[in-house]
Specification:
Length: about 150
């Protein structure tokens, strides 16, 4: 005949007793890790990290409100947008090509003929247009804020 299978219970009848048993066994099983955790806790206390964290937790809503105000301010949004725009331009640059240009101009300056020839390249005109457009935008913003005076 078939023998009945015993079912195991993985949670003890008294889970509190099991918890107490595990806590009592922890110092023996994890002594080295506990000592390192105490040392880390002491270092965090000495450097003031725990006090700063407690302060941040206690003033949580105030800190979050201030951060939200700063991040959602017009200057912060403009700075993020400009960072993304210029970051996109920088990541599209070929670092090897820039290195070659810098190295060649360090050896000897380009001739006037080469400079004039480069002025007529579409890429050079595109960058000059970008530079002039940026200067125009900065000038417009300076005029709008009243920081420049016309003669």
């Amino acid at each position: 005949m078939a023998k009945a299978v015993e079912f195991r219970r993985f949670t003890p009848e008294d889970s509190r007793a099991d918890l107490i048993r595990r806590i009592e066994a922890a110092p023996h099983e994890h002594a080295e890790a506990i000592l390192e955790a105490y040392e880390l806790l002491q270092n965090l206390h000495k450097t003031g990290v725990i006090a700063a964290a407690n302060g941040a937790f206690n003033a949580g809503e105030t800190v979050i409100g201030k951060l939200t105000d700063v991040v959602s301010s017009k200057p912060a949004i403009a700075a993020m947008r400009l960072g993304l725009i210029f970051g996109d331009i920088l990541t599209s640059l070929d670092a090897n090509q820039v290195h070659e240009i810098v190295a060649s101009t360090r050896k000897s300056p380009p001739s006037w003929f080469r400079i004039i020839r480069q002025l007529f390249r579409p890429e050079t005109r595109q960058v000059m247009g970008l530079g002039l457009g940026l200067m125009q935008a900065v000038g417009d913003s300076m005029n709008a804020s009243g920081t420049t005076k016309h003669d």
